[in-house]
Amino acid sequence: MNKNILSFTLAVLLLSGCAIKQQIIVRQDTSNIQKAVVDFYENGSLIASYPAQIGRNGVAKSGEKREGDGKTPSGNFPITVLFGKEAFTNTAMPFLKTEASIYCVDDTKSKYYNRIVDAQRIEKDFDSFEYMLREDGQYDIGAVVGYNKSGESGKGSCIFIHIQKNSGSPTAGCVALSKEDLNSLLNRLDASKNPHIRIVP
Predict the structure, then answer these.
(1) Which of 5, 30, 56, 195 is deepest in the core (most CB within 10 A)?
(2) Is residue 67 within 8 Å of 106, Cβ to Cβ?
(3) How much is the pTM?
(4) Can you list the domains of the chain with their CATH numbers?
């Protein structure tokens, strides 16, 4: 998408009374479907840009994201909460401190599908999940993307913005940045400005 058109569109949304004052735009690379550019806009102005990794199979078309397809969902979604293993410096956003018992459920048969749960506080009905406290450091800091909030089975789960494994490794469907860039991005977010992420193929 042309950046001038994008800036104009964001400005129109703001002037029309839309509450989204912070927008993260993820633009898929035209030459490599596993890479993207992440642009951060506030009040319609471009503030920062970062290179990123996305799903190994690129971006799913609207409504076509499926569990395990290796694609990042397209669309416009809220950033609901930040998470990490230590208290985060940004206090303007809700924060979830990850523990060994905190999981994100990706089992399509579970009533907790696409939810982050404390396994010590629920009756487990799932066989498949992601640890939110990971040994590889990729979830040391991150943000939850409000995709498939209704938890519709099979439509995809556990979509985050998180730390990349390395600059050449795609994700299973998330958006991944270097730790330095992610820290910069997440510290800009403010819940009162209703931050959203728009992912475009």
Answers:
(1) 195
(2) yes
(3) 0.89
(4) 3-200 (2.40.440.10)
